């Protein structure tokens, strides 16, 4: 659970520094209509994703896990009018909520939502020879993190940035013996990144409205 102090600081920065406009508020609030309410990133984290994608010069973004499309809208704004975001979502109900939000945000034309198991959707993109992506955000079912990283490595160019959400989980990530498959999914993907000669990576802990969690940030050489 997020402490009151963490919440207060997030709200301070979000209200002063981060532009969370009405379309984003609509998307955030619509999380209640998805299969996983309140799982979207915080506003300052959404802005961080937008900035990272812009710093990477991203024109093509791939997202694993859409839910209500809150982070997708930040990423669609990052890529600009000529950019493209493909977002992979298991649940048709979530995808429908997200697509309504993309319309409200005026970014529907930049986003393609693919419904189905994300490993299968990514395999299809690989098979179809999709143009390489510049930026990948992995934020879906955590046990599949290693599979999503493997797919991302087949779908990205040199210099591409890969960000993975929810890698701290209230500190549980440090427990090698954890029985939580989500924790083991994070530990496995961290090990894969460390072992991959073509990837540099680090992890940053975060506190705020979303509690104590964190992000892995990796880059293809
Ligand atoms: C969970 C998943 C998320 O993507 C998130 O941001 C928070 C929690 C979860 O699986 O518990
Ligand atoms: Mg997440």
Description:
By secondary structure, the chain is an alpha/beta fold. The protein has eight helices and seven strands. It has a seven-stranded mixed β-sheet with strand order 3-2-1-4-5-7-6, with helices on both faces. Strand 4 (133-138), helix 7 (145-154) and strand 5 form a beta-alpha-beta unit. The protein is globular and about 40 Å long. It starts with a helix and ends with a strand. Bound molecules: 3,4-dihydroxybenzoic acid (DHB) and magnesium ion.
SS class: alpha/beta
Helix content: 40-55%
Which parts are unreliable, with pLDDT below 50 for 5 consecutive residues or more?
A: none
The CATH topology is given as Rossmann fold
Rg over CA atoms: 16 Å
Give, in spatial order, the strands making up the sheet with the most strands.
Answer: 3-2-1-4-5-7-6
